[in-house]
Amino acid sequence: MTNKLLLESLQKLIEPSKMLTDTESLEAYGKDWTKIYTPNPMAIVFPKTTEEVQAIVQWANEHKVGLVPSGGRTGLSGAAVATNQEVVVSFDYMNKIIGFNEIDREVICQPGLITEQLQNFAEDNGLYYPVDFASVGSSQIGGNIATNAGGIKVIRYGMTRNWVVGLKVVTGKGDLLDLNKGLIKNATGYDFRNLFIGAEGTLGFIVEATIKLERKPNNLTALVLATPDFESIMSLLHAFQSKLDLTAFEFFSDRCLEKILDRGDIPAPLDDRYPFYALIEFEALTETIKDEALAIFENCMEQGWVVDGVISQSEQQLKNLWRLREDISETIAPFTPYKNDLSVTISKVPSFLADIDEVVKADYPDFDVLWYGHIGDGNLHLNILKPQNLAKEEFFAKCATVNKDVFEIVKKYNGSVSAEHGVGLVKRDYLEYSRSAVEIDYMRSVKAVFDPNNIMNPGKIFK
Ligand code: S2G
Ligand code: ZN
Known about the structure:
The mean pLDDT is 96. Strands 15-12-14-13-17-18-16 form a 7-stranded antiparallel sheet, with helices on both faces. The chain has a 5-stranded antiparallel sheet with strand order 5-6-10-8-9. A 4-stranded mixed sheet has the order 1-2-4-3, with helices on both faces. It contains 15 helices and 18 strands. It has helices spanning 3-11, 23-29, 50-63, 115-124, 141-146, 154-157, 192-196, 230-241, 254-262, 287-303, 315-326, 328-332, 349-363, 392-412, 437-450, and strands spanning 19-20, 43-45, 67-70, 87-90, 97-101, 106-109, 127-128, 164-171, 176-179, 204-212, 214-215, 220-227, 246-253, 276-283, 308-311, 338-343, 368-374, 379-385. By secondary structure, the chain is of the alpha+beta class. The protein is globular, with a radius of gyration of 23 Å. It is 35% helix and 21% strand. It folds into 4 domains: 3-92, Uridine Diphospho-n-acetylenolpyruvylglucosamine Reductase, domain 2 (2-Layer Sandwich); 97-215, Uridine Diphospho-n-acetylenolpyruvylglucosamine Reductase, domain 3; 220-322, 2-Layer Sandwich (Alpha-Beta Plaits), CATH 3.30.70.2190; 336-443, Alpha-Beta Plaits (2-Layer Sandwich), CATH 3.30.70.2740. The chain binds (2S)-2-hydroxypentanedioic acid and zinc ion. Residues 373-374, 381, 420 line the site of zinc ion. Zinc ion binds next to strand 17. Pfam families: FAD-oxidase_C, FAD_binding_4.
């Protein structure tokens, strides 16, 4: 059947305005934040109801057309990229909060709800949605669930998975499953909800989510502490974590801070510059807790683990300190960074980072390597900035050779080649560095159960 006839048959399933095929829309909706794939979808459709999603899935099975789920398109692994005449299914029109119960402290929402809107809704109801990261202003809950988004508060609140208590999904066979129904306890066999969380749209579409909310933290206070070396950051983690219930423990190198300060719109946190910085956040619920934090800070100074530091004294200063860490990603984006999102168990972080740093600099001494991330949960972000004088293709080709050395080290440390950004297309060829061949076979078998015709996000996670 020609594309024209295919699209005519698809158009019949949804309102005329809910399908786009113009070049600009195909380009915009056919990609995410990865810059290395050429978008090439057949069409973009915007279902408004679960029934429309089911009709689209039936159509795709009938015509063997791939479907790519699309949320805020803020992904960094190519999971929402359509490069092979797939139909992109956007949830921009299924973006509402459709229920809330203050006793359950649970929100029922559609997948297209912007993450920040959920955070604001929780705040308006005296509660808190604790999954937070730089792109919450444009990411969608459905995409956050499909990639099990992590971010900066995982040390206390965990990943998105921890907050999803109900999930309605349309499987790749077109069946509607109503999973877990908002229950906190439910021991009735396999928990398919947790299969769909992190499946990157390869098993079916998320069409509704029930999200648990949390008590709102009070008087959040942050310290930015300069350290003489990376090992000192781990000493800080132990010193603070053993006495305080931290809400965040982040780090960034001075190269990151330099890029931030070059912007000129964020004040430097300290008078001088140092190799590494830790950003530590906690709830100063009482003056005693704040005094405790300052005492730990002073002890760390005496130990030589900290060479200088600052503590937030206001909401605005807290925001300014967080911008030093949260703005790194957008600030370095113009440098076409080669990104790696790695994790190991926390105790291994210092030697892991040292081994990777060594191998990258041995391969390419002139590479501008930036380190930042979430030390509190063992997640490091390695970014290599493209040298001005190197073409993008040549740069990424060089980085691909580095990748193999990096992933050999990940394997040696039993780490993950993708801590929070997902596999998508970017990490698909490196899956075996973190998952065994047997595991990958089981994943294929599960995929075949939920999506026997491989119409759901074909080619993502594995070939
Ligand atoms: C972070 C954001 C995406 C990136 O800043 O924690 O996950 O790696 C990242 O630039
Ligand atoms: Zn991150």
